[in-house]
Write a structure and sequence with these properties.
The structure is a single chain. It is built from ten helices and six strands. It is an alpha/beta fold and 260 residues long. It has two domains: 150 residues, HAD superfamily/HAD-like (Rossmann fold, 3-Layer(aba) Sandwich); 89 residues, no CATH class. Strands 3-2-1-4-5-6 form a six-stranded parallel β-sheet, sandwiched between helices. Helix 1 packs parallel to helix 3 and helix 8 packs parallel to helix 9. The chain is globular.
């Protein structure tokens, strides 16, 4: 096994929980956008809620604008709501609602009412510091808008250890996770075996495997910030993760998985 030289982390749900609960905002937003003022039968409501839940589950980790593209297509397809917005308009509304929650959390941090650890997966900082001390380059790749990821990484105190942070380019539908991996292989001449990808979504796990790297799953319970989330665990297993843990408290095991 080649020595690991670079690790790509997903951010939300893998390191940070500042955006924990985003599903609770996306779910009702999608429902109201699709239904509009229409009166649905109980069966229709149940079927739609199930369809939205299934989509959110399988799309976790992709860029938000792609999720909103699905929303636009579904609003058109169901034809219950005459008001059909495009993906960017839906994204703007959803982001505004989500950022209200994020801003409240950042405010509590800035006022000293909460500490950074309250929004970090257990052991994440110590693990990142350990990798940094061993000269491992670390990258953060996220489907969240780039300026927001940078700011949140700074607020949580991990930015100084990260070689590069890559969020979704504002106003463009591009997969930043894919780009980071491609750039590492092409620009830095790293072979896939020198790369590891760590994340809680199937998107980054699949990208890591495609790149020939090691894909390690983080099946985090975002509320407790420690322990295994079995729903995520199954999703990560299905995506082909090489190994799965619930948090970074077991630092020695993580290092062993990286061959360090």
């Amino acid at each position: 096994m080649a020595a690991i030289k670079a690790v790509v982390f997903d951010f939300d749900g893998t390191v940070s929980t500042l955006r924990a609960g985003w599903e609770e905002i996306m779910r009702p937003f999608m429902y109201e956008s699709i239904v509009g003022n229409s009166k649905l039968s109980e069966e229709q409501v149940e079927a739609l809620v199930r369809e939205i839940d299934e989509y959110i589950d399988q799309s976790t980790g992709i860029q938000t604008v792609y999720q909103m593209r699905w929303l636009t297509a579904t609003v058109k397809e169901k034809a219950w709501n005459n008001l059909v917005l495009d993906e960017w308009e839906y994204k703007a509304i959803y982001n505004e609602r989500l950022l209200e929650r994020v801003e409240q959390r950042i405010k509590l941090l800035s006022e000293g009412k909460l500490k950074a650890e309250d929004y970090l997966i257990k052991g994440a900082v110590a693990f990142i510091q350990e990798l940094h001390s061993r000269g491992i380059e670390m990258y953060v790749a996220s489907g969240t808008d780039h300026p927001d990821v940078v700011r949140e990484a700074e607020v949580l105190g991990i930015a100084p250890y990260i070689t590069e942070i890559a969020g979704a380019p504002v106003g463009k539908a591009e997969c930043s996770k894919e780009k980071v991996l491609q750039d590492l292989i092409r620009d830095k001449g790293l072979s896939g075996q020198e790369l590891a990808v760590i994340g809680d979504g199937k998107v980054e796990i699949a990208l890591g495997k495609e790149a020939g790297g090691i894909s390690l799953g983080l099946a985090s319970d975002e509320e407790k910030r420690e322990g295994l989330n079995t729903v995520k665990q199954k999703r990560l297993e299905a995506a082909g993760a090489d190994w799965i843990s619930g948090d970074f408290g077991n630092r020695g095991e993580w290092l062993a998985q990286l061959g360090l």
